[in-house]
Amino acid sequence: MNPILSSRARLGTYLLGWVPIVALLTFVAMSQDWRLAEALALAVPMGAGGAFMFLSSWYLCRALPLRSTRVGSHWTAWILAAVIMAALWAGAGLALAWCLAKATPLTGLYHRAHAALPTLVGIGAVLYLATLTLHYLLDAVDLGKQSEAREAEFRILAQDAELRALRAQLNPHFLFNSLNSISALTTIDPPKARTMCILLSDFLRGSLRLGEKRLVSLSEEVDLLKAYLSIEQIRFGSRLQVQWELDPATLGEEIPALLLQPLVENAIKHGIAGLTEGGVVRVASRREGNVLELRVENPVDPDTPVVHGLGMGQRQVRSRLQMRFGDRMRFEAGTTDGVHRVRMVFPCEVKP
């Protein structure tokens, strides 16, 4: 569809742009000793006709896109089309002048228009090329918007694919450990094994409920995290303690789904599991203005070699935040004084 006709705003702006062109035609005619009535009688309908006729330059724009590798050869077609359309436009104006000279007191209009015919053809060619240029510009703008829309769609698809991959990675690993623990508990502590089965069922139910969402409230993420930790606390007993430092004002904020779980799982797997006496996993949140900060901390064995770079879980979390927020987010992870800290800072999601 012609980009000028694709919206009322564009069409209105285009037609409004012809008002100064009509004024220019009138001025040119009067500069050649035309009377005002004669100039207006020809300039106004020719302006309206040109606005309609030169819309046909859209078809030339589509036939000869600038993306083509043979742009240099387009000039011949552009100039030829401009001359032909300008001649038709000037011819239509001359025919109109003849009709007006016969039907109105403007008897000298035809002779004046005939004398100005070369000037009208030149003006028409310039106006056609200007309209053609406008079509190329609007086409480039529309292609840019389409490209941005496709990029945004691909970004969402990439986020969905990464989230599915994250779930595929987390759930089997977690289920494997949980089922092993249940199997071991069935012989030594059947009631605890039964409790663990119920907790595992609640966790999987909650995980499926949030499975189709890209964004969840922090409170929903925390509820799922608590169900996960309640199972892990049966596995680790008193070795695993959890400290929550959540600002109530942040619980309604939306965050990417499964943002905290891989970090907490890493805290247990690479921190608590390696300490004989266990330790405390600390989860904190706070908000400053329109920025949300989340932190996960856990003790680590000081004799464990320091691992440079991020693990897979942390890389995935940082990558998802990067795709969603770009340079507006910060992700920091490191170990200091026997405590591993992960800090995430990103803008609060704008609720519709």
Automatic annotation (TrEMBL):
Keyword Membrane appears in the UniProt entry: yes
Domain Signal transduction histidine kinase internal region: 161-240
Keyword terms: Kinase, Membrane, Transferase, Transmembrane, Transmembrane helix
Superkingdom, taxonomy of origin: Bacteria
GO molecular function, one term: phosphorelay sensor kinase activity
Pfam families: His_kinase
Protein known as: Histidine kinase
Source organism of the structure: Mesoterricola silvestris
